[in-house]
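Review form for a predicted model. The reviewer records the input and the model, then writes brief findings.
Reviewer: anonymous (R2)
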Amino acid sequence: MKAVPYCLPEVLDTVIATACKVSSDHFIHEKVLDRVLSTLAGKLGYGSSAESLLYYALETTYHALGVKDPYAEVKSGLNHSAVAVKKRILGDKSEAFRSLTAFMCYSLAASDKDVIARPVVELEKYLRDSLSAELEFEASRRLQQQILGAKSILFVSANSGELVIDSMLVNALAENAKVSLAVAAKPVALRAMREDAKIAGISEGVDIIDPGSGMLGVSLEKASSEFREVFTGAELVIAKGGVNFETLRGCGREVFYLMYCDEQQQQQVQSTAPKVKGRERRVLFSTDGKDKE
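Model under review:
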C-alpha cells in the first residue's frame, strides 16, 4: 500500500467496497464515509502507517454498519474451496505433490488473493502448475536449511482461504519443530482468524497466537508481550503477504517472506533483496530486519 497520505484514496475505496457489501443505500454509504473521515482526521500525524489507517478505517466502517464481519461469507467461500483443493492434493499418491518444496510452492502461489478466489478445479491446477515455477534458489535453499535445523518456528499468516493452503506447509513444519501460528484477533478485511485455522486443519500441536494489536499486519510496538516473546525467541520466522512485509520491515531480525507483490512492493522488495528480479510478482526472499522503509 502507498505511504501516508497517498494511501487515502485506496483506503476510502476499500471502505466504500465494504459498505456496498452490506447495503445498497447511498445514504448509509455517505454516513459511513463521514465517520471514517472524522476518525482518520485524528490519525494522520507523524508515524502513522498505511496499514494502521486502513485498520482504523475498517474498524469504524464495521461499527457504522453495525456488523461484526462483512467479509464472513466471502471468507467462508474461500475456505470451502481451498479445503476441497487441499484434500485432493494430499490424496495424491505422488510424493512430488506432497514434499516440503511442493508445500512451499503452494503457499507462495496462494499468496495472490485473485488466485485463491478461483473455482476449485482452476485453483488446484494453478497450485500444481506452480511446482514448475522457479523459486529464487539461494533464498529457497537457505529457508529449507533453516527449516531442517530450527527447533522453534513462527509462521505469520495472511488471509482466509490462503491459510488452508498454507496449512500443508505449517503442519509439515510442526512434524519436527515447535510451531506458532499468528492469526488476527478479530475481523479485519480477509485476515485469517482462529476459526479459520480450525477450518484449515492446523495440527493440534501448533500454538495459535495473535499479535495482540488487532491491526493489519504486525506492529511490534503495539503487539502483545506474548507475541513479541515468540517473535524474538523463534529460531525461524516465516511471514505471508505484502502487509506483513510492509509492517515487519526493519524489525531487527531475519524474516523469510512469501508474498505476491503489487508494483510498488516490487520496488521495495528489489531494494531490500536485490537478487529478486524486478519483474517477479510471486517472491520468496529474506531480509535481515535492518532494512528501512
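Findings: The first strand starts at residue 152 and ends at 156.
Further findings: The domain at 73-287 is CATH 3.40.50.10880 (Rossmann fold).
Recommendation: see findings above.
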